[in-house]
Write a structure and sequence with these properties.
By secondary structure, this protein is α/β, with parallel strands linked by helices. It has 14 helices and 21 strands. Bound molecules: xanthosine-5'-monophosphate (XMP). Pfam families: GATase, GMP_synt_C, NAD_synthase.
Length: 507
């Protein structure tokens, strides 16, 4: 595998994505916890950073445990660090070195540059530049503005590049990374979903004792469903899935998802606890209070169900790699805007050990593994749905009647997205019940009813999002259907706010 040492660049995860796309396994570690070299580590990538090597406070770890022992590739800050530590001169760039540039000079006999064409476009993003290289370093590529765009240490597979091969604007970036990980580091390209499944199943069988029972909370989402299928393959019915209906799911979702799980042969218990959740939510209007009440009730219900499983030793969770990286990141914890994590503290309370079979996978890898394991399309490509469900899409207090009203309107919207083929083009969609009434006219009668807002966004990871530019005819049709078919709603609006400054959910 490849070790990526993270110095805090916004692009570090992208380096990992690109290397994994080459079917080579890699892991990100913060530079503050640089692991020692083991036999599995075939090469090291040093990431970029918002810092400057000239700043005495900047990251400056001892790299001697890697240099000369395995191939090393420094990217941007990583390259500057390699030059700086060996006595090279790194200075503030005098001209702007941000954006597209073209390689104007190239040592194409160099293994890192193999197959890269002259004039190849690369993406630059740096405030410092390498002015002079240490004696035993030589330049292997330049651009008209940047003489040291890439270098190698003489007679040693240690390289530095000033540009970012991981962003798609570097058109041959992936080829350069392939040159490094496949040709120079000699990594096997065997990180495939099938390979992952075999390895994960074997590891689970080894970790989980022959009589141990494992509990997993299922939500109908991709991650928990794929985790369930992997565990099912490893330990069969000793996996006990618990799927709680909190009364805040989409229309008929509980029944249909439970049916899918049972069709896959999973050992799953469906628990309808809607009334308990409604009781806990009664009278609450503040979004964070509602989230806490829902989270607390979930733990109570789950705990009760889990205690019915004799010999339970493990709690499985669908944690994925971005969550893992986030929790060990070079950057400090982000400010809490909304408390997204719904079930803290469960394993401690239940004295269970935690098993997280997906903790090394990115979201799209989870989908590929799910596909390999036969997860049906409707679960595999389902939009994200928040744990507190419709509870945070009904603004103000929650009653069973409001839930039913919103479920009806939401079902019309989602169904229309499916029928027109737009569902897979948006990242997430849903309907929000607003806490206001407005006047309308139906036939000869005056109405005074509720308003729903439609929300649909495009996004890559939910961190930023744009409102989806759905066709007017589509919106007109959905609005018509909702107002005609859902009694109690006489007005539909469309949310045209992006994130930031808005958020995807309204609460
Ligand atoms: P926001 O509203 O923060 O949402 O832009 C970003 C993504 O997170 C989901 N979301 C939640 N998920 N519990 C969850 O499990 C929550 O409390 C929660 N709040 C928001 C939201 O649906 C979107 O996908």
């Amino acid at each position: 595998q490849i070790l990526i040492l993270d110095f805090g660049s916004q692009y570090t995860q992208l380096i990992a994505r690109r290397i994994r796309e080459l079917n080579v396994f890699c892991e990100i570690h913060p530079f503050t916890h640089a692991p020692d070299l083991t036999e599995d580590i075939r090469g090291v990538v040093l990431s970029g950073s918002p810092c400057s090597v000239r700043d005495p406070e900047a990251p400056n770890p001892d790299l001697s445990k890697y240099l000369g022992k395995v191939p090393v590739l420094g990217v941007c800050y990583g390259a500057q660090l390699l030059a700086h530590q060996a006595g090279g001169e790194v200075l503030p760039a005098t001209i702007r070195e941000y954006g597209r540039a073209r390689l104007s000079d190239l040592r194409d006999e160099n293994p890192l540059m193999h197959g890269i064409s002259l004039n190849s476009q690369v993406w630059m993003s740096h405030g410092d530049t390498i002015k002079t290289l240490p004696n035993n370093y030589h330049v292997i590529a330049s651009t008209p503005e940047v003489r040291v765009a890439a270098f190698q240490i003489d007679n040693q597979p240690t390289y530095g590049i000033q540009f970012h091969p991981e962003v798609t604007h570097s058109t041959q970036g992936k080829l350069l990374l392939a040159n490094f990980v496949v040709n120079i580091c000699r990594c096997a390209q065997d990180w495939t979903p099938e390979h992952f499944v075999d390895g994960a199943v074997a590891a689970l069988q080894q970790t989980i004792g022959p009589d141990d029972q494992v509990i997993l909370g299922l939500s109908g989402g991709v991650d928990s469903s794929v985790a369930a299928l992997l565990l099912h393959r490893a330990i069969g019915p000793r996996l006990h899935g618990i799927f709680v209906n909190n009364g805040l799911l989409r229309k008929e979702e509980f029944e249909s998802v439970l049916h899918s799980y049972q069709g896959l042969g999973l050992n799953v218990t469906g628990v309808d606890a809607s009334e308990e959740f409604y009781a806990a939510l009664r009278g609450l209007t503040d979004p964070e209070h509602k989230r806490k009440a829902i989270g607390r009730t979930f733990i109570e219900v789950f705990d009760r169900e889990a205690h019915k499983v004799e010999g339970a030793k493990w709690l499985a969770q669908g944690t994925i790699y971005p969550d893992v990286i986030e929790s060990v990141s070079v950057k400090g914890p982000a400010v809490t805007i909304k408390s997204h994590h719904n079930v803290g503290g469960l394993p401690e309370r239940m004295h269970l050990k935690v098993v997280e079979p997906l903790r090394m996978l990115f979201k799209d890898e989870v989908r590929e593994v799910g596909d390999t394991l036969g997860l049906p399309h409707n679960i595999l490509h389902r939009h994200p749905f928040p744990g507190p469900g419709l509870g945070i899409r009904i603004l103000g207090d929650i009653t069973p009647e409001k839930v039913r009203l919103l479920q009806e309107a939401d079902a019309i919207f989602i169904d229309a997205l499916h029928r027109t083929g737009l569902y897979d083009k948006v990242w997430q969609a849903g309907t929000i019940l607003l806490p206001i009434q407005s006047v309308g006219v139906m036939g000869d009668e005056r109405t005074y009813e509720q308003v729903v807002a439609l929300r649909a966004v495009t996004s890559v990871d939910g961190m930023t999002a744009d409102w989806a530019h759905l066709p007017y005819e589509f919106l007109a049709d959905v609005s018509n259907r909702i107002i005609n078919q859902v009694r109690g709603i006489n007005r539909v609006v469309y949310d045209i706010s992006s994130k930031p400054p808005a958020t995807i959910e309204w609460e």
